[in-house]
Amino acid sequence: MTLPPESVNTSPVTLSARGLSRRFGTHAAVDGIDLELRRGEILGFLGPNGAGKTTSMQMLTGNLAPTTGSITVCGSDLLESPVKAKAHIGYLPETPPLYRDLKVDEYLDLVARLHRVPGAQRRAAVDKAQARCGLADVSRKLIGTLSKGYQQRVGIAQAIVHEPDVIILDEPTVGLDPNQIRDIRKLIRELGGTHSVVLSTHILPEVEAICDRVQIMHHGKLVYSDSIAALKQFHSGRVLLVGLNHPPTLDALAAIPGITRAESAGENLFRVHVAAGADPTERIVALAAERQWGLHQIAPAQTNLEDVFVNLTTRDITEGEKAA
């Protein structure tokens, strides 16, 4: 489908949010976050339950007004020109907005009409969305008779039928079997080639496999924002992986100056946490030689998304946050 000339946007920045906040009474569900998305980029949007992800996505799609802040979609202000801005957005909420009494192709045709896809292009747009989501064989079936997995596919199809610049997917693989998940991952990668995609999911390996960048929310604030490649540099040098053939106790390792904690990472392998500004490497090497620990490995530990996520989202909740 080709958008009308006045709707076409070639800017590399498709979605921009500045100082976005949303309060419910005295509780700040989202507190001053910034977000920028470029064409051809897939952003993993993460956080524990209650972190403010869904509230943020509802604001980014124009389904919930922010208390403060601004949102621009392909150059159009979402608050001042909502119809123009929303024409560039495709959204799959956590619960897909399906009409169970309609057939799949009837429903997608309705969605295409609502998104003002020109009549001459509507059939082709529906067919393309169905083909992308693996729905061709069930196009004449009632949505209510489909499995949860196929209903999820219909939800994704309605989000992309009008070829939006920005696609926002909230838990798109919920209810899918492993083969379907693989197909949806492939689809998201394909969409990320020419569109901008925001993906919210609790499946962290999925984010590492298909996303270019990741943002993590905790208690309404952004606590991490960087590329997937930069994850391995997160807390670089503050965790060492130490291999010892004849290891001492964990308490003995933790007692070495500059080490805050030691834990087992497998047989004769230990993860050593280092205090900020400290470098106990030489001391570990010297003690290993002196006490015949049999040192065979010492190197900065690789950091994955799960490590970063747990590190940033397990801090104690303050009394004020508990009350809220």
Provide the CATH topology of the largest domain: Rossmann fold
For the biggest β-sheet, the strand order reads 6-7-8-3-9-10
Q: Label the overall shape.
A: elongated
* Rounded mean pLDDT score: 87
The CATH superfamily of the largest domain is identified as P-loop containing nucleotide triphosphate hydrolases
Oligomerization state of this entry? single chain
A few lines on this structure:
It is built from eleven helices and 14 strands. With 324 residues, it is an alpha/beta fold. The N terminus and C terminus are likely disordered.
Q: What is this structure's SSE topology?
A:
Elements: E1 13-24, E2 27-38, E3 42-46, H1 53-60, E4 68-73, E5 76-77, H2 82-86, E6 89-92, H3 104-114, H4 119-132, H5 148-160, E7 166-170, H6 178-194, E8 196-200, H7 204-210, E9 213-218, E10 221-227, E11 239-244, H8 250-254, E12 259-264, E13 269-274, H9 281-290, E14 295-300, H10 305-312, H11 319-323
Parallel strand pairs: 3-8, 3-9, 6-7, 7-8
Antiparallel strand pairs: 1-2, 1-4, 4-5, 9-10, 11-13, 11-14, 12-13
Helix pairs in contact: 3-4, 4-5
Describe the fold and architecture.
The structure is a single chain. The longest helix is centred in the middle third of the chain and has 17 residues, at 178-194. Helix 3 crosses helix 4 (119-132) and helix 4 (119-132) crosses helix 5 (148-160). The two termini are 46 Å apart. The chain is elongated, with a radius of gyration of 24 Å. Strands 6-7-8-3-9-10 form a 6-stranded mixed β-sheet, sandwiched between helices. The protein has a 4-stranded antiparallel β-sheet with strand order 2-1-4-5. It has 324 residues and is of the alpha/beta class. It has 2 domains: 5-232, Rossmann fold; 235-302, Alpha-Beta Plaits, CATH 3.30.70. It has helices at residues 53-60, 82-86, 104-114, 119-132, 148-160, 178-194, 204-210, 250-254, 281-290, 305-312, 319-323, and strands spanning 13-24, 27-38, 42-46, 68-73, 76-77, 89-92, 166-170, 196-200, 213-218, 221-227, 239-244, 259-264, 269-274, 295-300.
